[in-house]
């Protein structure tokens, strides 16, 4: 199947999951995860109407931006080191993986240098896995409030990556992130509209549990190069 056909299929599945959950499909943004796939496939997806693309590696996405340009809305969804922020700051649309104050402060500083405001999500390690990045759930309130105070960051919500288990087994982690978001909104008075959760294997379940950003790669681009 073509990239366009794959995108259409995924969008249909998103619409069906929203319908089953009693939600408006316009509440869910599809982020096409193009990591390890070349710029030609990004261009093909762009031609099919896809705007939001997710990347995990700074060096790789820098090359794609040079070749494809800034027309896509580039989402950075991988673990981010502070010394790499300067490469993303001129053009990144949203960073999903802010998990500590020092990283947030570096993004804020670099955004200021480019006279930009960068959208960010606080990554929460909701399953508290040693191998995953993200702040602990009980650290999220302090981090959210610190990020919200930074002038060149727009705090949009939360992100998580659950264990690589079957979809129904990870449902509780999606639900816990949604509940955490609701609690943080109540405690802080901040609006946190976005929940970035769900990938190819489990995005319908994530949508049922409130996801607003689904990060789908394999179902669109095929297996990774």
CATH topology: TIM Barrel
Percent in helix:
40-55%
What form results from the Cα inertia axes?
A: globular
Beta-strand fraction estimate: 15-25%
CATH class: Alpha Beta
How many alpha or pi helices?
A: 9
Pick out the low-confidence regions: none
Distance between the termini: 17 Å
Strand arrangement across the biggest beta sheet: 7-6-5-4-3-2-1-8
SSE order and pairing:
Layout: H1 3-21, E1 29-33, H2 39-47, E2 52-55, H3 58-68, E3 73-76, H4 85-88, E4 94-98, H5 101-113, E5 118-123, H6 140-148, E6 153-159, H7 167-188, E7 194-196, H8 203-208, E8 213-216, H9 218-221
Parallel strand pairs: 1-2, 1-8, 2-3, 3-4, 4-5, 5-6, 6-7
Description:
With 225 residues, the chain is of the alpha/beta class. The chain has one domain (3-221): Alanine racemase (TIM Barrel, Alpha-Beta Barrel), CATH 3.20.20.10. Helices cover 43% and strands 17% of the residues. The chain has an eight-stranded parallel sheet. Strand 3, helix 4 (85-88) and strand 4 (94-98) form a beta-alpha-beta unit. The protein is globular and about 45 Å long.
């Amino acid at each position: 199947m073509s990239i366009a056909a794959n995108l259409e299929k995924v969008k249909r599945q998103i619409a069906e999951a929203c319908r089953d959950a009693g939600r408006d499909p316009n509440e869910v943004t599809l982020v096409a995860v193009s990591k390890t796939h070349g710029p030609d496939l990004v261009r093909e997806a762009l031609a099919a109407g896809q705007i939001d693309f997710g990347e995990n590696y700074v060096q790789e996405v820098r090359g794609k931006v040079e070749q494809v340009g800034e027309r896509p809305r580039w989402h950075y969804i991988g673990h981010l080191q502070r010394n790499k922020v300067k490469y993303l700051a001129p053009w990144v649309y949203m960073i999903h993986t802010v998990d500590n104050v020092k990283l947030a402060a570096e993004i804020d500083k670099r955004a200021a240098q480019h006279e930009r405001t960068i959208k960010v999500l606080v990554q929460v390690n909701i399953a508290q896995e040693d191998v995953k990045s993200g702040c602990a759930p009980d650290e999220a309130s302090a981090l959210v409030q610190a990020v919200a105070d930074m002038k060149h960051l727009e705090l949009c919500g939360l992100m998580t990556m659950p264990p690589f288990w079957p979809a129904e087994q990870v449902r509780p982690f999606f639900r816990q992130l949604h509940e955490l978001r609701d609690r943080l909104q109540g405690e802080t008075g901040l609006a946190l509209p976005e929940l970035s959760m769900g990938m190819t294997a489990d995005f319908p379940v994530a949508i049922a549990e409130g996801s607003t950003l689904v990060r789908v790669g394999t179902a669109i681009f095929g297996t990774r190069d």
